[in-house]
């Protein structure tokens, strides 16, 4: 199992300068290769990353002698990345997904990073030996043991990090699960996650106050940019020291927020995987939801895509089953008690009353209950069925009607292979 540990570095001034140069080299080579690729493509040729790398190697030291100071990984790897980027682009076009062509990287706009191959560095406790610059202090020791696959050095605000990929044997990657519950999780905007136990998990206060500060600092930077625009047109203005200072402050705050967010999602996903043997979530259509401008900010803040990705790999480590409900499963609209479907429920209704069985539902808790119900075998079809369009919709509703409340499921036997889980499940009721 491939795991990555990202560790903050404590480089000296010279080392940090080298990092900056190496990241610049990577960017330069990427742009060189991308330009050539487009040139060849326009001329009707069939460009390839390998061929481009070969032609670059033939001229690089003659045309760009400064490359000799840099380690070769920083100017060899971009070709592999570019090849991969184009491959992904064409695959997405083939699958009729929205795809973006690889783009040129702009200084200060793109992420500063460069690659180091696994045979070019060695790790010893809190020290890492990198090519050309020697030992750099790390703030932590490497957490995973196994075959080291490679590393990427990158910068966030004014800090440098190294992300080391390790191939960890499965038995070592496995972690001990502490609980055997089955939980339905409804992700939302108001509370990030609502569990079928009734618990609402909201983002923590530091993130909220940091987002408020973000506005203030963002304004401070744009004020300085506005001020510099008052000069006559066409004159190139180097950013003032004050502008640089406030930009750095803003960048640091962005990094701080990213860290708070990462901390939150990691703790949430670890907790869910550690305490449950089955987790049922919705297949959120994030890209579609982002089109709704009002929701976009809130969704980006929460980072649903990240939550989903973390759940997937942590479920493997804790041997937890992750079930994803079909996108068309009406988890909010069904009454979790009598299964009556509230077809007129709107996004704004936070709670609703079921006329059929007289239950007052909290929208999110009810959805979480419905998701949890999918962990029983009758509804597995809905959860595992992937598709779209009307046929899927019909099928979902047909199956949903047949769903039996979980508490009646005890003792049922069928060929779904869920016996183990269900046995355990029964003991809880
Ligand atoms: Zn009802």
Q: What is shown here, in short?
A:
With 429 residues, the protein is α+β, with helices and mostly antiparallel strands.
Tell me the layout of helices and strands.
Layout: E1 2-10, H1 13-42, H2 49-63, H3 72-94, E2 113-117, E3 122-124, E4 127-130, E5 134-138, E6 147-156, E7 159-167, H4 170-173, E8 181-187, E9 193-195, E10 200-201, H5 205-228, H6 241-275, E11 276-282, H7 286-290, H8 293-302, H9 304-318, E12 321-325, E13 351-353, E14 360-362, H10 363-373, H11 380-384, H12 390-402, H13 419-426
Parallel strand pairs: 8-11, 11-12
Antiparallel strand pairs: 1-5, 1-7, 2-6, 3-4, 4-5, 6-7, 8-9, 9-10, 13-14
The structure holds zinc ion (ZN).
Zinc ion binds next to loops.
Structure description:
This protein is an alpha+beta fold. It folds into two domains: 2-172, no CATH class; 184-203 and 268-426, no CATH class. It contains 13 helices and 14 strands. The chain has a seven-stranded antiparallel β-sheet. It binds zinc ion (ZN). Residues 335, 337-338, 340, 354, 356-357, 359 line the site of zinc ion. Zinc ion binds next to loops.
- Small molecules bound: zinc ion
Number of strands: 14
In the predicted model, the low-confidence regions spanning at least 5 consecutive residues are 379-429
Strand order of the largest sheet: 2-6-7-1-5-4-3
Number of domains: 2
Mean pLDDT: 81
Task: Please state the overall shape, judged from the principal axes of the Cα atoms.
Answer: globular
Give the helix level as a range of percent: 40-55%
Which percent band covers the strand fraction?
A: 15-25%
**Count of alpha and pi helical runs:** 13
What series of H and E elements makes up the topology?
EHHHEEEEEEHEEEHHEHHHEEEHHHH
Coarse structural class: alpha+beta
Q: Report the major sheet.
A: 7 strands, antiparallel
Terminal-residue CA separation: 36 Å
Mind telling me the C-alpha Rg?
A: 26 Å
